[in-house]
Amino acid sequence: MGLLRRRVATGIVAAAAILTACGPGASSHAPLTGASGRIDPIYDFMISYPDTEILIGGLPHFGLTIDLAVRFADATLRDSDPVFSAEARVVEVTAGGVSQPFQPTGPIALEGTLTGDVLATGLFGPIQIGNAVLLVDLTGAIQAGRRRIAGGAALFGLDDPGTFVAIKRRRYLVAGTDLNVIGKVSILDVRYESRFTIEDDLEIISSDPFARVEDGRPFIVNAYTFDNLQGLDPAAAFSTAFQYTTGSRSNPHDVAVLPDPEPAKIPAGGATGGSPGGFAFVPRYEPPFNDVAVIDLADGTIVDAIDLSPYARNADRLPRPDQALLHDGLLYVTIQDINLTFTDYRTGRVVIIDPEARSVIGVVDLHGQNPFLSLAALPDTGLIYVGLAGIFPGLLKQALTGGVEAVDPVARTASVVIDDDLLGGNVASMAVDSATRGYCVVTDSAYRNFVKMFDPTTGDLIGTIHETTNLIAALEADGDGWLIVAEAGFFEPRLLVFDALTGRPLASLPVTLPPFSVATLTRSL
Amino acid sequence: MTRGLARGSWSGRLPAALIPALLAAGGVQPGVAEDAAPAAIPAVVETIQVRGRTDEVETLDPAIFATVIRAEDFAGRVTSLPELLRAVVGVQISSLGGEFATVSIRGSAAEQVMIYLDGVPLNRALGGAVNLADLPLNQVESIAVYRGFTPAGLPAASIGGAILVTTRGGTGAGSAAGDGTHPTAGSGWTAARNLSATYGSFSTAEAVLSAAGGRPGFDYSVGLDAGRSAGDFEYFGDGGTAVDPADDGTTQRRNNDFERLHLTGRAGFRAGGRGRVTLTTDLFGRDRGVPGKGSASFEAARLTERRAIARADLEVPGLWGGRILVRGAADATAALEEFVNPIAGVGEQTHTDNQMNALGAEGSILWTVSAHHAITLFASRRRETADLADLALPSPDLGSARRDTTAIVLEDQIGFHGDRIVLNPSIRRETYDNDFRPGAGTALYPDSLNEGEAFTTGKFGLRVRASETITLRANAGRFVRLPSFTEMFGYSGSIKGNPALRPEEGRNLDVGIVVTWPGAPRSTSGHARTMRPARIEAALFETVAGNLILFWPNSQSVVFARNLGQARIRGVELSLALAPFRRLETALNWTEQRAINEGPGVNEGNLLPGRPGREISATASLAIGGGRLFYGFTYVGRNYVDLQETDSSALPARYVHDLGWRHGFAHGLEATVELKNLTDEQVSDVAGFPLPGRSALGKLSWAF
What we know:
By secondary structure, chain A is mainly beta. Chain A has 4 helices and 37 strands.
């Protein structure tokens, strides 16, 4: 462009001739790494030494607190060795109640042990505050469902007693979209259960994205007309590690990942041999696919496709596979069973697949129609919950033929938890938090959207915790007592955070792109 | 475009990718000299025929910045209407790399540009922009591009401006001498015929037969165009993985073929002592593949289009002592579109069968108050209907919509100081009534089935001829775009209509200067002129568009339109045409613009997508022996595809070079060879539609 500005004044033809030399300056993407690591647990440590006195600028300061973010290397936690490695970053230091400069601002390597529920860091540092150079040693017990660690804190060379409390950091992967041409990844971070930060625009994704965390790894399923599976690397600011096509116009709706076995367990060759990257099972919604594609995450090869057409009963024999869930070694896939023009709805089904054999081993018939974007297992009850939308108003009249159902994976039967007649509209999304708390997005005939609370055990409708005329694109129960609501309004797109037990709102967080899908990144020790 | 409309009462969610997009928004041709046309109102006013060899071309409004492309400007070329318009200053073209391209002017949306074929508006109340590939370029006499403002004497105006395409007339009015026509001995008839054949890359072929003739009091022209292409160009694709370069590579465009046929006719004859009647028609048919975007193409989706346009014009000049000119016209349009997609995805039609009809009547009276003052009263009434169906549905009827539009325009044109200063105010009163009958095929009803509204718009134009060579122009006005049927009444189960929509509104302003050197006369010794003809035009413009209509979902299954957006577009247009040497003609057009989203919303202040900040075109042609070498260059600046201004997804700047040679032979034979996109630039448009790389085309024509 600089060339354009300099020369064009010399004459039209001369300008054209010069412009001949101009090239497009096309950008090119760097090769992808092809592998993504698992998400590391992060805990925020507040370390307090109330009796410690340090000199800063020649003045004494009493009482020292250190705010520390510790990222544990996931691989070292999952092995049989109690020794783990981690990386600590000092976030803030206060002395005498006043924030103080510190060094280093970069990471501090840490190696400790995790034995049972006891965490010991050993000495790590140094952390320089004023003229003081500190080496910290923490030992504590993991509590409250691994959400909290508390214990004692020592300083090398000093007898001043200290304590610490560490809180597991809540993190969420948010897939935002302009609902037109582009999407982007954001990360919602919550420190100490109350300090919310959002990192926007971390990576480019499609405008039809589903955020998923499978096998401790973050994925984006880029759906219709994008048709690929995008693996993000949590160790590299959630940049893309790989992107594998699922087939042009296949419309992938979800992903479930069969973890990679230990190398020794990978059989050599064979159709169902192992892969060091594991296998992704991706429901492909559109004809002529109508299947669950099996993708080798090591190289993106589609190694198999499990045809679900035999399980569809509509006139066009289109199964419309939607959601996938790996539970107790089996893969559960919802099928909507709707024809090509979306005018012939059959009752929904859940197909049970043996992921090792890559074959269907059972079918559970649901009572309602249109299992829709919702499939979750709840350890508290041992059941799998399915949200069913019924029929949205469109070519056909609105029909409340859905609700929430529970699938018993042992008996392979389904039962209605709550009917959408009681909910008052189509169930557009569903999440379960506990045996007594479930939530669903209900859209009524006037296109008002509600987040309603129900009891998954009794089937009682407890109440409404949120109402809006904006699209609520997703619900996410994080398994730690919080519910995230993605409200994709045009003017003020936002994430809403609720206490999943009480339905009490905790935060309303503006985002730059309408949030479309949310997945929980939070990982425990 | 039919397939752009989503359908959905599916079970499923509405795919975000299919939700309609946000903010649906040249060379000065050598010899264009509309400024040279006198503004004075002649004592006896008549329509000025736009003739191919006319050096001075009258536009419908002396103040509006307009570019007129005449048939001889592209005679012998192997080109297309999008290519020609791309070279017009202030004009942007969006192409899908096949038989679909749209135009926007000064950063407008394509739907905000009115396009007329022989006076018949092609924009449809159903919605969507006009496909430039629907126009019969080979039979075109002139293309007038009015930037930012629409002349008063047209039945519909919009925010971006208007493009008037006029087909060839006959040659029998006694004024056609020298047009290459051949008198038939003793009969008084003249006749001209032309036959051409084109063939080139991607199995592109075209055959054109034109004939024109007449005798005093009667003239006619008829043209037959038949074209086809496989459209199977190779392009560099991303393998469906935009981020991963590992699977990128060259691939072939599929299902991008077309076959097209145009039959165009025009006849004019005298009626009574003064009157003149002109009948025009264009019959058009096309079958084509609808390939979709590059990485997610439809393999078998086909679109069949049929359209018939007929229009009758009556013009009676010289009434009341030559002070009154009366015009009247009536037109009819019938269009059928059938889209078949055997494996339609969620939100896509399977087998639509839509019929759109329009009937229009208009009349005007031009009163020449004095030699420098004329008042025009224009009135028009149009009825448009759309009958929508999806034959794949158990109940195919998706409903019918009707719109009646009435426009009354009063235009005044006053010249002062010997027409050195011309004022041109006009006021337009439009009313429209809509009616919708839902079909049995949908259960998604709008809140109201009958809506109407009336509004007043207008413009004020000023032209000041400061000297023989310098002309100043300025215009200010307000225009609207009516909501489409789709926006008001919904479509096919996934778009819920919003009858309460307000029209999109634009307030336009421009000011500029035109400098024209006619060139010094040749010396008696026959040596070269000391100064050659040149023309420079520079204009500043601003458009503030409000009430912009945007589709947005309000639930998992349905989107609906709302008046959500506002935008401000400012820019500079510079065009230059000169002939520095006797055999060399050159032209340069340069447009700089900033189209800013003024929200509200999180993207307020960002650039609007799809509006390049800079566009440049340059052309040069050199006469050598019996032929002419021509070169064209087009630069389209980098532009964002999203409101977030995402750098990594922006369309890179595009540099396209074309080169051609045209050679004349004896007996009216002429041969042309053109190489397009010489450097094989691999680009895409509209967020993922690949455009062809290098191609070669040859044309042989015979005038007889």
